[in-house]
TrEMBL record, chains A, B:
Domain of life: Bacteria
Domain MoaB/Mog: 10-172
SUPFAM superfamilies: Molybdenum cofactor biosynthesis proteins
Listed name of the protein: Molybdenum cofactor biosynthesis protein
Amino acid sequence: MADTRRVTAAVLLIGDEVLSGRTQDRNLQQIAQFLAPLGINVIEARTVPDIEDEIVEAVNTLRAKADYVFTTGGIGPTHDDITADSIAKAFGMTIDVRADALAIIEEWYDKTKTPVTESRKRMARIPEGSSLIKNPVTGAPGFQTGNVFTMAGVPAICRGMLEDIAHRLEGGTVTLSRSVKGDNLREGEIAEKLGVLQEENPNVSIGSYPYFIEVKAGEVRRGTHLVARSTDKRALARVIDAIADLVQELGYEPRIDPEE
Amino acid sequence: MADTRRVTAAVLLIGDEVLSGRTQDRNLQQIAQFLAPLGINVIEARTVPDIEDEIVEAVNTLRAKADYVFTTGGIGPTHDDITADSIAKAFGMTIDVRADALAIIEEWYDKTKTPVTESRKRMARIPEGSSLIKNPVTGAPGFQTGNVFTMAGVPAICRGMLEDIAHRLEGGTVTLSRSVKGDNLREGEIAEKLGVLQEENPNVSIGSYPYFIEVKAGEVRRGTHLVARSTDKRALARVIDAIADLVQELGYEPRIDPEE
């Protein structure tokens, strides 16, 4: 097997609205799905409130733990947007309105003859030594400070920012993922043999997830989704075949997901 | 203003499938929404992989930090379900198959003449001194260890388990939440006055969230969602009225959410 290079990421979601349950986060999934094909695996995610000390502590823990950290939320113009100041504090850097960021914001608002108010200028506050991240949706940039990428919380803006930073990320070996679904298969039926298969294949990670899908009112389709992940394509294929065989032997029709 | 009692919770989502982006988590939102009316506020959430040391560290950090911890995921019958053992390790407790848990599982499977395999017995492994949590969907129980509630990852099962533990939770003062939407309102227009309003009302927490909703292909409705939260109902009402006035003064139609 060829050498593999492991590259890791942590995601930090910042915002009371996610913790209160008012907003369903979409960014963890979209960031993880964006990074996977680059060979960057998310190893931890945290959600913290709009409290400076909490943000600082999480940023400093995560940037020491993972190769990259991606934060979302709290970079708008209102009083509750404290992420930029918190990142500066985490790095022990100064922060002020920066000419290049302000120029981008002024140019953006000029197009629609919208005044750049004092609060909009706040969005040009960038920690010392950071590089900017383009925002193709609303103009105001995100920024990269060391290995920490600070992005917007609105999923469409976050997505645009990811596109802008992809080329700055040094990827690793891609972890491939394939899966087999067995409708009506229950985890307990396959668990023992699956455990043996996992022991025999330490370089493939096998996960088992029951599903209960309400097809229509009162009618539930249940089954088990068996997911295998590995950096070794051939080992992965062998395990997927073996899982499909196990499902078949138990009397269920294995549905193998197309290769991803 | 009456005395308020602050009660906090942390949520720990356990599972590679959430971190890989394969599964969109629904449990953080459902747990937060379940706890809010009980006067319990989620102050932090973490997502960790199926790695014992990571789970142990997160459980021990969070149970010291919050009044209650709610974990989801990793309590099924397969080899990748390591949450029960990890919780036992975090508390320094022994763990073994427990008669009461096994009886529940046997009774459940007996109804459908399903054999209780060795791997299904694993689901009766409960850390010493824990009390059980009913699972109305698939039988195998969750458990409470000290201030930590260990629940299933499947959202429907997690929901059922929350119902079972509600009466065990000592709630606090309920944080009320109300909001005003302004279609076409942009954050930058209202930011300064909103900041002043926040300064004048320290016992109300005001958040501002831009939205971009694709109404149909290519047609986006944008605006700003202004959310106020407080344990003081009258202060909250005053702030909501003041926000609605600000939105109106700026020339937009405020849409006040019905009281919650």
